[in-house]
Specification:
By secondary structure, the protein is mainly beta. It has three helices and 32 strands.
Length: 504
Amino acid sequence: MFKLKNQNKYILFLILIVITIPISYANTPDLTYYPSLSLSGSTQDSSFQVNGFSSNTLLSTDDSNWNYHVEPMIAISDNGTLFVGWKNANSHNGGGEHVSIVKSINRSVSSWTVPFDMPMYNGLSTKQSDPWLVWHNQSIYYAYIEWEPEYFQEFNNSYLSQVTVAKSGGDLTDWTTTNASNGLFFADKETMTIDDNGIIYMVYDDADASSPEGNVTIRFTRSIDKGESFKEVSIIGVPSDGHLAPYITLDSENNITIVSTWLDIQNGGGNLYYTSSNDGGFTFKNQTFINTDGNYSFFGSGKVTIPVIRFDQHDRLYLLWADTYENNTHSLDVYLRYSDDFGITWSNRFQVNLNTAGDQWMPDMDIDSDGNLHIVYYNASSNGNFKPNYCFINFTGEYHDNPVINPPIAIADEETLGIFTRPGDYLTVRLDQNDIPHVVWTDGRNNELDIYYAYGIQIISEPTPESNQKNAIGIELEVILTVGFVSIIVMGVLVSIKRRKTNI
């Protein structure tokens, strides 16, 4: 029987390793031919990767009373039911007439309900605007401003002007309503959120429309009985003619943060104010400016700087807004900052939109379960026509401080003509329980302003016969080269062994 010496056993073992490892690698397919595994250049951590949007669904299907529908807001229930509200108007840049709502249980075109017009408070004949939706604990809450038309004729407090909050268990024809504000003047631009204990927080502008200076007071109210009643607990800051659009959010401990726009009426420009409360809104810190790099807030030509704020799962606070900081084009761009110490210090500003021609404005965002940002905004080309874009951003690096801004994706199938100068003051994106983004926006494709809806999808490119053939050829060539390389090594080792035997 043939026996190997110890040194020969060792050499044979090395040969087997050299043969086995390259061949195992040679049979590994090239992942570039399997885009369903990972898109080239993608940095998204979430299992669902958006690289396109569904066909657009028209939601504002009733033009019997109003032809213009703007300022859409979306909320999503725990089981994925979609609720969308908006305001109706008589012109593309006119004031609100009424607010409506629809819902869908599965986002298919046929599942959307017909629009339902929200009730008027106490049976009065009112006008409505500024819809805001929040889903919480099996109920949908709908906030909107409401006023009697005579208010602007006489500026008399005997006429109704308030923020109304309506509540429903999901039946769009069954609502209870309450007055959620306690201001002295015209209630405007409310935002609302609900904490883990069911306490509802609402903040709004109380604007003295009769004053030449237009002084605005930011007022804060809350409800501890699930929206049955609201009580004012704070006035934020000092009344000013430049206050606008306070936005409220909560951290993981239910502490309150509010960011609002301040406009420099005399000199132009403006900034963003930050404040917070750790006692449920009874006291707030002094307001401080966020943008220490200058006053670039904007108001005019149907566009305005309105902030959006969100905490992620680690209590990093993100701030999103649009202003005219970019000096070369003097146009609006979308910017992002973050704070890791609850607003004490802020990061540098990051420009979100890659295209700087024309205006990019009216941003909104949501944050997924992995802490990634899903951002939408209007993108206007140099000719003034516009459509909504979607942008995905995540942060890399040891300190999570390097933003990776992915290329924008167009959401709308068609552009809106630039003659429609004011598509409301916001569009909205919200994520469902599977981190899929759902977007609603104002769209003028039919020569009127309508509300459209789309959701994020994965467009997976199937491997073509050519790519499969190319892949197979590549693998075969790699195997041939590897086997040839192994053969050379084996031959070299055998020759070395033979020489050693000859020399012994």
